Structures are given as structure tokens and as C-alpha cells.
Amino acid sequence: MDEKDVIYRYKYLPFDTGSLEVIKSGTIKFTNPLMFNDPFDCFPHYDQNAIDEIPSRRKDLLRAASRIRNLSPAQHIQNKRRIVSDFKRRVLDKSVPNSILEKIGVLSLSRDPRNILMWSHYADFHKGFVVEFRIPTKLPDNTIGTIDEWLFPLKVNYSKERPVFRFGLDDSETVMNNVLLTKYDVWKYEQEERVVDNDRGPGIHSYLRNNVLSSVIAGAKMSQESVRELSSVLDSVKNEIENDVKLYVAEQSERDYEILIPDFPRSSVTET
Predict the structure, then answer these.
(1) Is the pLDDT of residue 268 over 70?
(2) I need a labelling partner for 221 at 20 to 30 A (CA). Which of 38, 48, 83, 160 fits?
(3) Can you give the pLDDT at residue 170?
(4) Is residue 201 part of a domain?
(5) Is 271 contained in some domain?
């Protein structure tokens, strides 16, 4: 696949058994958004006025709520206000958002393999490693696997303002952007993109390792013993992988606040 048709994205990992399975067996963790370290992540402001508009603008949702409660047509008419009030309460106490988010799996990737904070926060204080994925910008014809297995990511938007979610009134694209793909802009250093899995949900899932695994970068503070183990793991699977997968070792710059990766062929992608 030509270079113009691919993007490179990065996963920061600690050096442990589960992380090594990303290389060994081609499995990777998709996280439940309820477990994210930012309590605002995936929790926009829910517009209460929009919920009040559901009876007039989304009668189908109201009828569905009545069916769940096994209400007769007459009971449906009598209980409209109660259904809306109950729904509003369950949105405010987060039971409705939680019930939706718990079924979604998210894999967070970055556009930057040299970020000092990312190495510190997600790669065990530079003792872990980064996995580089070479991802097609569009799926090849007659391809195997789904977009989730190809790790096709969606860009995260960073905003100073918390997004507003109009439950039942926003279209699916707006819901995706406002719930799963918008974060407070203090997080923009992460340069995050997300693989969202609605089918398999959270958990340890397979990805097309043999197609997209591109290289591995050991942290600047990784022990020599761990570097040797990482190299051995990589050597054991190289013959199965389509790309020429190499191991690089990061270093701290002697002069600047900078992480160097000697001989690494790609520059950081820093667009926001």
C-alpha cells in the first residue's frame, strides 16, 4: 500500500504481559468510557429543555418507552408526563448515559510518538513502549476485517466549551462528535484519535496485527533486560507481519526538553 494511502498512529503502553500481547497475539484493549481518567470525557451537558420536547418531536421514543413499561394506549396517554419526568431524572443521575456508554469500547491512539507527557502518563514513566500502527486511510477492496480490526481512528476535537447534547433530537453524527469525540482542550497535548467499537464493546479484542503493526519504540528509561525481551518478542512474530517491523529505542535529549528516537523515519504529526 502506497504511503499516501496510510496514516501512522501510536499506542503508549506499560511494559507488562498484557501489553506484550499486542505484539505477540494481536490483541489490544478497548476501554469502557466510564473508566476514562477524565470524569468529563464522554459526558456532555444534557439539554433539559430538549428532553421536554421529546413528546412533540420524538413521539416514537415516547411510544418505545411505553412499550418497555407494557402500557396500554390509554395508559400511554395518561403517563406521558411521568415518563418524560422519569427519563429526565435518569439522565441527570447519569443512569441513562451510563447504560449506553458501558456497551462501547474505545481504543485511544495518538498522532505523536515523542510526547514527553504521554510517555510519562501512559508508558510507565518512560519505562514502557509505544506501538506504531500503519493504518489505511480507506479499506482495501475485498478486504478482510472491519474498520475496528484495521484500527481506523476518528479524530478527537478539543474545546474550551463543554458540548451540549439534545437527547433524541441530535443526529447520529452530532451525537458521535459531542459524546465520544470532544474533550476539554487541556488534553490537546495527547493529539488523540479513537477507534470506537460499538459491536464488540469494551474488552480485549483482536486487530489485524499482520497488516497494521509497523514498529515498536522502547522507552528511554526501559531497562536493558526489558529491551532484550521486547526485541525477542518482536523477532518471534516478524515473519508473520506484512510490514518490516523494527524496534527503536527512545532517548532523552542532552540539550533540550525532547524525546529522541534515533533512526526513526517519521516526524511527529502535530496538527490539532
Answers:
(1) no
(2) 38
(3) 84
(4) yes
(5) no
Looking from the CA of 250 toward its CB, the CA atoms found within 13 Å total 26
Same-domain status, 157 and 33: yes
Which pLDDT tens digit goes with each residue over 151-193? 999 999 999 999 998 887 888 899 999 999 999 999 999 999 9
Q: How far apart are CA 149 and CA 133, in angstroms?
A: 12
| C-alpha cell at position 128 | 514502557
Give the residue numbers spanning the domain of 23.
3-41+104-260
Q: Is 272 among the domain residues?
A: no
Q: Which of 179, 177, 186, 185 is nearest to 45 (CA)?
A: 179
Pairing of strands 129-136, 251-252: unpaired
pLDDT tens digits for 67-111?
A: 888 888 888 777 878 877 887 788 888 888 899 899 999 999 999
- Among 93, 123, 157, the domain-final residue is 93
Contact 123, 13 (CB under 8 A): yes
Q: What percent of the chain has pLDDT over 90?
A: 69
Residue matched to cell numbers 501512522: 8
Ordered DSSP codes for 1-20: --GGGEEEEEEEE-SSHHHH
State pTM to two decimals. 0.89
With respect to residue 205, please indicate whether it lies within any of the assigned structural domains.
yes
Question: Nearest to residue 114, comparing CAs of 262, 226, 272, 229?
Answer: 262
Structural domain total, the chain: 2
Residue with cell 510490514: 243
Q: Identify whether the C-beta of residue 212 lies closer than 8 Å to the C-beta of residue 131.
A: no
What cell numbers appear for 57 in the block?
A: 418531536
49 lies in the same domain as 23: no
Q: How remote is the C-alpha of 33 from its chain's centroid?
A: 9
| Whether residue 249 is found in the same domain as residue 179 | yes
Please check whether residues 10 and 56 belong to one and the same domain: no
Q: In the numeric block, which cell numbers belong to residue 196?
A: 470506537
Residues 85 and 175 in one domain: no
